[in-house]
Design goal:
487 residues, alpha+beta, Pdz3 Domain, 2-enoyl-CoA Hydratase, Chain A, domain 1, seven-stranded antiparallel sheet, six-stranded mixed sheet, 10 helices, globular, S41 family peptidase, endopeptidase activity, ClpP/crotonase-like_dom_sf
């Protein structure tokens, strides 16, 4: 794809000549509903489903009073965005009143105590248990006696619950407090049994390197690369490339890519990783974005295409890509695998054999951009975010939008995975038998190795006797989770 900075410059210059709503009321600098005005005019330009959103029509309002009455009918900007603008099928557009947190999250920076967990209802009732999936290195949790597979049930002495009949009735936000004392337990016969272990954890700002595990596994004279990658975070493109290069230097002939806890991220980074896995398709179409009618006609297909490449050039590094030239790749997925992870699977399928092991993915085939309120123009125009330059943002508020602006399709034109990408070999993680990440006997990894070597899996996974229902996980709290973005 042509450099996004050039494209966004064209977009910004084009605002003044594409505005169809010059007659619409413009709130003054101290207008109460300036945020709502920013939301409407931004979404009227960018929203993928603009033509399907009744309140975004260019002729929706016949005079200023109608427009102003509509803005004031939703006093809270969040209600205006979610209830007044979005279409029903939109699951992922996002608004925040703190754009700095959103920007940081996109760079892999967020507050955490270092525990990545999933929350599950246990048995038939409303009791909730948290299951630790992994511990972030050099975090507060990494200094404590906790590990993958440990189970907690209470926070600061209060047991966790989530009402089955009314999911909004819950106290799960307790886990997100800056300082928490977790009470641990075991699960037997669908019952949470406290074990009298309590540990305090403190959240602080943390930068996560998404390259979590990179190693070589040797089986039957076959060298298999294993890479656990937990987020398509563009500032770490060089680290990703280096990890692939190290695996390549050790002579791997197969790659198992673990995306089970990867909620997605940068479209560009997904393109880079696809190019690292392959290498023999340089210049060929990897993925294409489809925008709303206006932008699609304006750009055409060429300017909205991402091609396989042999170089990383993201403004931070400019280096050759380490390519493995593989014809087969094995992906480990879960119900939390989303956006840029799914883009990778879908984008590679027309070119090489992709074997998926695990659970069905989220089903996010859409991309977004971050928009700030830039009042410099003739109206409160939206400003696509690039870098940390926010000096032109409206000083009256710190709201930002991350709306769906496009859908992605692969080189075969396929984009229809709204219900998720189904695995070739279905294995759902058993919360009481998670295994050790990167270990050959860990259930999902063991199954992938079996498909490569033809030797039966060594995994000792037993059928779960615990009835559990997944609710949410720690990554869901991040503003960029499930938000594949164009950068």
């Amino acid at each position: 794809m042509k450099k996004s900075k050039i494209i966004f410059l064209i977009l910004l210059l084009s605002f003044s000549c594409t505005d169809k709503d010059d007659n619409i009321y413009i709130p003054s600098a101290n207008k109460e509903y300036v945020v709502q005005d920013f939301i409407w005019k931004s979404m009227n330009i960018w929203y993928y489903w603009k033509n399907d959103a009744a309140n975004l029509g260019d002729n929706r309002f016949s005079n200023n009073k109608q427009y102003n009455d509509f803005l004031s009918s939703y006093p809270a900007p969040e209600d205006f965005f979610y209830d007044g603008i979005l279409v029903e099928e939109d699951r992922f557009s996002y608004i925040t009143d703190d754009y700095n947190t959103l920007f940081n999250s996109q760079q892999g920076i967020f507050k955490t105590n270092g525990i990545e967990y999933g929350l599950y209802r246990i048995g038939e009732g409303n009791d909730v248990a948290g299951v630790i999936r992994y511990i972030m290195p050099n975090s507060d949790a990494s200094t404590k006696n906790v590990k993958r597979g440990d189970i907690f049930y209470a926070v600061n002495g209060v047991s966790l619950y989530s009402n089955r009949e009314n999911p909004n009735d819950n106290n799960l936000s307790l886990v997100r407090e800056d300082v928490v004392t977790l009470s641990f337990a075991t699960i037997e016969d669908n019952t949470i049994i406290p074990n009298n272990i309590e540990i305090e954890f403190t959240r602080s700002e943390y930068t996560e390197n998404p390259v979590f595990i990179s190693k070589v596994i040797e089986q039957t004279n076959t060298k298999i690369g294993y890479l656990m990658y937990n987020g398509f975070t563009s500032p770490f493109d060089a680290e990703l490339n280096s990890s692939i290069g190290e695996l390549k230097s050790q002579g791997i002939t197969y790659l198992i890519l673990d995306l089970r806890y990867n909620p997605g991220g940068s479209v560009r980074t997904s393109t880079y990783l696809a190019s690292m896995i392959t290498g023999q398709f340089n210049g060929s179409l990897y993925s294409r974005l489809r925008y709303n009618n206006f932008w699609q006609d304006y750009f055409g297909n060429e300017n909205l295409s991402y091609n396989f490449t042999d170089k990383i050039n993201n403004g931070q590094t400019n280096e050759p890509i380490n390519s493995l030239n593989l014809n087969n790749v094995y992906m480990l997925t879960s119900s939390g695998t989303a956006s840029a992870s799914e883009l990778l699977i879908n984008g590679l399928k027309p070119y090489i054999n992709v074997v998926q092991v695990g659970d069905t993915t989220v089903g996010k085939n859409q991309a977004s951009i971050i928009l700030l309120d830039d009042p410099r123009g003739d109206y409160a125009s939206s400003l696509p975010y690039s870098g940390k330059k926010i000096e032109n943002a409206n000083p009256l508020h710190t709201y930002a939008l991350q709306p769906i602006v496009s859908k992605t399709e692969n080189s075969a034109g396929f984009s229809g995975y709204e219900k998720g990408l189904s695995p070739d070999f279905y294995i759902k993680e058993n919360i009481t038998q998670l295994g050790v990440l990167g270990d050959e006997n860990e259930p999902l990894l063991s199954k992938a190795i079996e498909q490569i070597t033809g030797i039966s899996s060594k995994s000792t996974l037993k059928k779960s006797e615990v009835k559990s229902q997944f609710i949410t996980d720690s990554k869901t709290d991040l503003p960029t989770t499930n938000h594949m973005y164009v950068d």
